[in-house]
Structures are given as structure tokens and as C-alpha cells.
Design goal:
The complex is a heterodimer of chains A (331) and B (308).
Chain A: E1 4-6, E2 25-31, H1 38-52, E3 56-62, H2 67-79, E4 83-87, H3 94-104, E5 109-112, H4 123-132, E6 137-142, H5 149-166, E7 178-181, H6 182-187, H7 198-204, E8 209-214, H8 228-247, H9 251-278, H10 288-317, E9 326-330
Parallel strand pairs in A: 1-4, 2-3, 2-5, 3-4, 6-8
Antiparallel strand pairs in A: 5-7, 6-7
Helix pairs in contact in A: 5-8, 9-10
Chain B: E1 10-16, H1 23-35, E2 41-47, H2 54-64, E3 68-73, H3 79-89, E4 94-97, H4 109-117, E5 122-126, H5 134-152, E6 164-167, H6 168-171, H7 184-190, E7 195-199, H8 216-235, H9 237-261, H10 266-296, H11 301-304
Parallel strand pairs in B: 1-2, 1-4, 2-3, 5-7
Antiparallel strand pairs in B: 4-6, 5-6
The chains are: A alpha/beta (331), B alpha/beta (308).
Chain lengths: 331, 308
């Protein structure tokens, strides 16, 4: 019997389980932006899963604003077993939709899939095969990629910046087809726009991550140009992740370096002006540049003190934090 | 489970990273040493994400001997994280840490314990006759230890030696992250712990390769200054930030008065003075915030002092 949930105003979920299920693969499909024929997506992938002979469930998480899409899959959910539809009360974004889906998924393997045709359906097979081998997370990479050069350029630009900040090389984090073991989804905390960085976060927590090549779907090859705000947000996302990734335990080294840079820039500027005054080239008082120099020095000290405060937080609270993950404890 | 109910007197914490060949020998020598002491003991191995067969070796030991506990990391997180995890899991009244590469000799464990019984809180091993390369290992180590001793005021000859014994109360309080396991003596001495050292035997490496190189020196030095800074700051953050604020305020007020009395340079000078005053305010707030953070944290030296 299909189970149907809706988020109430209080943010609570009401869930009813009618019978115990035995599910091998949970497919989580967040419907948050672009959206193709969901029934078609369901049908095609269900066929593949049936061919593999695994029990599967489909969880559609419908973001606020896509209610009309939800109505169509809801009809499907009434008809088919193991199809669930979760309707979010307002637009929460993809990361939240995925987190809700992960919470509901019961399979040992959870696969996320975009709500449009991004890769060929056989990609699901490839990802599941990779998971059967020795890895915890398998992400699809659209390769060979027959895309517009604009899309390709945006993609490689994003990954170049990401690699520059974190030192980890991925090729296609924008691909929504990712498979992971249940224990990975239990551990990840997703918020904001972090869904894009699932492989990176999983890698940081010590899971084995693998990229597999999956051909791009014909329908995915339209040119996509976004508003400038979107690009800015992506950059901020990368900065957030880079900070989470590298510096959570070394705030003094991070802020201290920036602070020292600012301070010495300001110091150099101020001393140059002071030198001119001493040499009698020009007076110190009527030089607005002096304000800039001192401002930079002040900013440097402030940044450094923030780093120091951060370090004090880590130092005094380190026993509560764990940045390592224990796989097994034989007592 | 009987074994969990026994009060444990001694925990031996051993980080392991790619040491499949050493483990068997290591285990027997630790066991022999532990059987010689009257307390109940446990041996905690932390497999720091080894890529060889270390874990299956350890698993076999665990099945054979209930004294052996094994923690496996999902990937390699480094010796500090491994030790911190071991210390966290340890239940003994005395915790002994040692390397997993057979260079430390567990035969010294009873002697460490004897020193603890004498009333010391931390007993460090000193590899006086060290069997390592002179240029790349021993000389840098001498220099580093001299600097560490000068800066932290804890005259230990060999901070890098992993073979140490601690009272539980001390080790459960020490803040371990990044690469700080080397500074446990310094950190605990700030808390009023009594520290001593004894000469321990040191063997040349038999199996595997050393995981350290001279590139570590820079890290050690930067950690050293960090620890010096932090241990100063952590006891009285408002004091240090307050001093900084006072300096900034003096410069600011001085500049203002100077500008007004001497009458130099109008608006630029005053602006600069105001900037320094705002810095003073910022630092003052930081100091208060720091005080709040330290108060809510775990690291409170006053709580660590061992009263007998």
C-alpha cells in the first residue's frame, strides 16, 4: 500500500506504514527546478530495476511550487506499491528535499536522481554496479559529454575553482545521479545548497567515493545561462565547503594568515607615508591614504583576533568535536 | 559480560598504521608486560585506516584475548586523532600510550607505573640511547625539544617519545586536535600536573618504514607557538584582549589629544585616532566573548589539578 505524507504547518511528518517492506534500492527524486515527465522517468528506471531483480521504492519529494507535478505522481502512488510522494509545504530547495527523502528511504542503497533526463537511463545500472563493488558512494559523470560549450565551460570552471580551494578532483558534481549506501545518507547533514557537494562531504567523512562515466541524455543539452546571483551563490558555496573541508580545526591559521596580510599591507602603506613625511616630501596630515593604511592595519588585527577566538573555541571544545569517523569498535 | 564489570587499572593505547608485521610481536610483548603488573588491564589498538592486513590481524587478536579492544578508523586521520580516540575509550585509572612500530619496548611499562605510584601524574619516556639516524632524526629532535622546553618551561628531554603514562584524570581533560599530542606534557603541566621522565629502551625499526620526515619540523614549530599562545590566552582571554584594547585606546586617545593640543593636521589625524578607538572597543568585546567561550568549554585548568 502506498504511503502518502504531507508536511503540516508545524513541520511534522505524518507517516503510516501498513506493512513491513523489504526494499533493496530507494530512488529519491527531488522535484525542485527543472522537471520532465515524472511518470516516464519512473517507468524507464523501474524497468531497469526490475531487470536487475531488486526490490525498489521511489520517493518523490515535491518542493513547494511544484504541486501540479505532485498531483500527477500522486495518482501513480495510488496505483503502484512502493511509490511515495512527499509534498513540502513551501519551497525549501534541493538539499532539504534530499534530506527529507533520505530520512524516508528504507533501502540499503539510496540513489538520488534528477527530476529530468540528465543521463541515459542505463546510468542507473552503471551506478548500482559500481556500488556492488568496493565503494560507498558512486556518482555519475556525464561522459562522453555532448553539450553546448557554454555548459561545458561553466562546468569546468566550477570544478577548477573547487579543486583550487579543496584540492579534491571531481568532474561533474552537477550530475544528480548519485548512489550511496544507507550508512552514508545517515551521516550526511545537508542544508542550503550543499547537495551538490555530497561526494565531497562523504569523502571527507572517510567514505570511498567513485566516479563512473554515464552518457549524457539528449534532452540535457540545452544551453543554460543563469542569473549572476546564481554564480555568486555557487562561489559562496565553494567557499563554505572549502572552509568546512580544510580549516574547521585551524581557524587561527586561516584567519591569521588573512589578518597578517591585511596588517602588513596597511603597515607598508603607512610607513611609506611616514617616510615621505620624515623626508619632508609631503605632510602626513592631509593624506587620505593614511586612513586607508591604518584602516587595513585595524582590519588585520580584527581578523586575527577573530581567528584567535575561533582557535579558543576549538581548543576548549575539542573534546566534543570529532572530525574522524570510526568504522568499527571491537570492545 | 564479566569483563566489562571488572575495574580496569591500566589501559595501553597503541595507534597502528600499516604495521601488519609488527602486530603479533607487539601484542605478545605488551601482554607479557601487563601480566607482570597486578592491575586488570586492557589493550586498545587504534587502526588508523591501515591499507594492509593490520585490521584482520587485530580482529584475530580481539577474538583470542578479551583484553584486546580494537577501534578502526574509516580512513587515515593521523596519530593525534588516533590517540585522542584511544584516550577517550580508555577506562583504566592509568593510561599508557605507545607507538605501534616496536621501537618502544613495553618492558618499560611497569617502571612507568611505579613512577605514577610515587605520586607523579605524567611520566614521559626518554629515548636516551635513540636508535635512529643522527642527521635527519636525532639532531632535529634535540633542537625541537630544547625549544619546546624553553618555551613551555617543562624540562622534558624527549617530547616526541610516545611511551608515556598518564593519570586518567589528566588525560581525559587534555584537548587534543590537529597535531598536538606532542604537547600533552606541556598542557598538563599548566594544569599543575607533576611531571617526570624515565629513561626507556629504544629499538631500531624492524619492519615497515617510518611515517615521519624532517618536513614535520615546521609543523611542530607552528604548533608550539600555537600552544604557547593558546595556553596563555585560554586561562585569561579577557586579560590579553583587554591589554590589546588598552594599547589601541592609548594610541587612539593619544592621537586625538595630540591632534587637538598640538593642532596637527585636522581631519586625517582625528579619523586615524577614531579608528584605533574602535579597534579598542572591538578587542574588548572579543575578550568578553572569549571569557564566555572558555567558561562553557571543557578545558579548565583549575579542574585538572590533582588533589591528593
Amino acid at each position: 500500500m502506498a504511503v502518502f505524507t504531507k508536511e503540516s504547518a508545524t513541520g511534522q511528518y505524518s507517516l503510516t506504514f501498513n506493512e513491513p517492506k523489504c526494499v533493496g534500492v530507494s530512488i529519491v527524486i527531488p522535484v525542485t527546478e527543472r522537471c520532465d515527465d515524472l511518470i516516464e522517468i519512473y517507468r524507464v528506471h523501474k524497468d531497469i530495476l526490475n531487470c536487475r531483480g531488486v526490490e525498489s521504492e521511489f520517493i518523490f519529494v515535491i518542493d513547494g511550487g511544484f504541486e501540479w507535478e505532485g498531483d500527477r505522481v500522486r495518482a501513480l502512488a495510488h496505483k503502484e506499491e512502493f511509490v511515495r510522494v512527499i509534498q513540502l509545504s513551501r519551497p525549501f530547495g534541493e538539499a532539504t528535499a534530499l534530506a527529507v527523502g533520505f530520512e524516508q528511504a528504507e533501502g540499503d542503497v539510496v540513489v538520488t536522481m534528477p527530476s529530468y533526463f540528465q543521463t541515459i537511463p542505463e546510468g542507473l545500472d552503471t551506478v548500482l554496479n559500481a556500488l556492488d563493488q568496493d565503494c560507498d558512494v558512486a556518482i555519475a559523470r556525464r561522459w562522453p559529454r555532448h553539450d553546448r560549450w557554454v555548459n561545458k565551460m561553466q562546468n569546468s570552471g566550477f570544478h577548477f575553482v573547487l579543486r583550487w580551494f579543496t584540492g579534491v578532483r571531481f568532474h561533474d558534481l552537477g550530475c544528480g545521479l548519485r548512489g550511496m549506501k544507507k550508512r552514508v545518507t545517515c551521516e550526511l547533514q545537508l542544508y542550503g545548497d550543499l547537495h551538490r557537494f555530497i561526494p565531497l562531504l562523504a569523502y571527507q567523512r572517510g567514505f570511498r567515493v567513485r566516479e563512473v562515466d554515464v552518457s549524457q541524455h539528449q534532452a540535457d543539452q540545452s544551453t543554460r545561462i543563469y542569473k549572476p546571483g546564481v554564480y555568486l551563490r555557487r562561489l559562496l558555496d565553494i567557499l563554505t565547503v572549502a572552509f568546512l573541508f580544510k580549516f574547521t580545526k585551524k581557524p587561527l591559521r586561516f584567519f591569521g594568515l588573512i589578518g597578517a596580510g591585511l596588517f602588513f599591507a596597511g603597515f607598508a602603506l603607512s610607513s611609506y607615508l611616514a617616510m615621505e613625511k620624515i623626508l619632508g616630501i609631503s605632510g602626513l596630515a592631509d593624506r587620505p591614504m593614511l586612513i586607508l593604511g591604518v584602516l587595513l592595519m585595524v582590519l588585520g588585527v580584527q581578523t586575527g583576533s577573530l581567528g584567535l577566538l575561533g582557535e579558543i573555541i576549538i581548543f576548549t571544545h575539542a573534546r566534543k568535536m570529532k572530525d574522524y569517523t570510526i568504522e568499527k569498535f571491537l570492545k | 559480560m564479566m569483563k566489562n564489570k571488572l575495574p580496569i587499572g591500566l589501559s595501553v593505547v597503541v595507534p597502528i598504521y600499516n604495521e601488519e608485521k609488527s602486530i603479533g610481536l607487539l601484542y605478545t610483548s605488551i601482554r607479557d608486560a601487563c601480566e607482570a603488573v597486578p592491575q586488570h588491564y586492557e589493550i586498545i589498538f587504534i587502526d588508523d585506516g591501515s591499507r594492509d592486513n593490520s585490521f584482520s590481524e587485530l580482529e584475530a587478536l580481539h577474538q583470542k584475548d578479551p583484553h584486546v579492544k580494537v577501534i578502526r578508523f574509516r580512513k587515515n586521520y593521523g596519530q593525534t586523532a588516533a590517540m585522542a580516540t584511544g584516550f577517550r575509550a580508555a577506562r583504566g585509572d592509568v593510561v599508557v600510550s605507545m607507538d605501534g612500530d616496536l621501537q618502544n619496548d613495553p618492558v618499560d611499562i611497569p617502571r612507568l607505573l611505579a613512577k605514577i605510584d610515587d605520586g607523579y601524574d605524567v611520566v614521559c619516556g626518554w629515548r636516551k640511547a635513540r636508535k635512529d639516524k643522527l642527521i635527519s632524526r636525532k639532531i632535529p629532535s634535540w633542537i625541537a625539544n630544547w625549544i619546546i622546553g624553553k618555551i613551555t618551561q617543562v624540562p622534558i628531554h624527549d617530547n616526541g617519545c610516545s611511551l608515556k603514562a598518564y593519570r586518567k584524570k589528566i588525560i581525559k581533560q587534555v584537548s587534543l586536535y590537529s597535531e598536538l599530542h606532542r604537547f600533552i606534557p606541556a598542557m598538563s603541566s599548566l594544569a599543575g600536573a607533576r611531571i617526570t621522565e624515565i629513561v626507556v629502551t629504544h629499538h631500531a625499526r624492524q619492519f615497515g618504514v617510518s611515517k615521519y620526515g624532517i618536513s614535520r619540523a615546521w609543523k611542530v614549530l607552528s604548533d608550539l607557538f600555537l600552544i604557547k599562545l593558546l595556553t596563555g590566552f585560554v586561562t585569561r582571554p579577557s586579560l590579553w584582549f583587554g591589554l590589546g584594547a588598552l594599547c589601541a585606546l592609548l594610541v587612539g586617545v593619544g592621537g586625538m589629544l595630540g591632534g587637538m593640543i598640538v593642532g596637527v593636521g585636522g581631519i586625517t589625524f582625528l579619523t586615524v585616532a577614531f579608528l584605533f578607538c574602535s579597534l579598542a572597543g572591538h578587542l574588548l568585546v572579543m575578550g568578553i566573548l572569549g571569557e564566555v567561550i572558555v567558561e562553557t568549554g571543557n578545558y579548565r585548568p583549575s579542574k585538572m589539578i590533582v588533589v591528593q
